[in-house]
Amino acid sequence: MIKIPLRILLVEDNEADVLISLRTIKKLVEDPHIEVVEDLSSCRNKLINFIPDVVISDYNLPTCTGLEVLQLVQKKDPKLPFIFLTGTVHDEELAANTILAGASGFILKRHMNNLEDKLKPLLKQVVFRMSEKEEIRERLRQNKIAINQINDYLDNLRLDNREQKDNISKIKDAIKDFKTGRDEDDRET
């Protein structure tokens, strides 16, 4: 069972498929936060206000297609994992096109009785990516702490002579450039 709480946006119009999906997700994830929508407008709202970790979407919806949902998701967050759960994808070419369009995976609804086995590796991949991002965020946080400590130290140095003042100003400028991502070449132009 996945121990990390997952925020899942389920885009589905079929009530029976919603119930099966919810039951399966709750078997796989210890603490899922699931929102269910069935149209683009509601999906857009949830992408802004709910901010899911993964989107699971039907391909054929009453007011739009799954590809439109995928495009909306990619516009809001190109790295957000997106899984199709659909009965429409019958041929391999269409399935391949969904992956080429940016979907992280797809599950055919004809496999709903095996949904747990099909969904589990895809959700584990989402969790793996989340832990990678968390590691990067922690490193960035540690770097910001170090920069703040250096700035604080420099602010507290006694500025006894002109040369020391100039050196400290150069160090502070270099730190500001590092924080904003500018490099040496940008400062010279």
Provide the structure class: alpha/beta
* Beta-strand residue percentage: 5-15%
CATH topology of the largest domain: Rossmann fold
Give the name of the CATH architecture of the largest domain.
3-Layer(aba) Sandwich
Record field, number of beta strands = 5
Main pleated-sheet profile: 5 strands, parallel
Overall mean confidence score, pLDDT: 82
Kindly report the name of the CATH homologous superfamily of the largest domain.
Response regulator
Separation of the first and last Cα atoms: 54 Å
Count of distinct structural domains? 2
Low-confidence parts lasting 5 or more residues at pLDDT below 50?
183-189
Number of helices: 7
H and E string: EHEHEHEHEHHH
Roughly how much helix do the residues carry, as a percent range? Answer: 55-70%
CATH secondary-structure class of the largest domain = Alpha Beta
Physical arrangement of strands within the biggest beta sheet: 2-1-3-4-5
If you compute it from the alpha carbons, what radius of gyration comes out, rounded to the nearest whole angstrom?
24 Å
Shape: elongated
Domain Response regulatory: 7-124
Protein name: Response regulator
Keywords: Coiled coil, Phosphoprotein
Coiled coil: 147-174
Sum this structure up briefly.
With 189 residues, the chain is of the alpha/beta class.
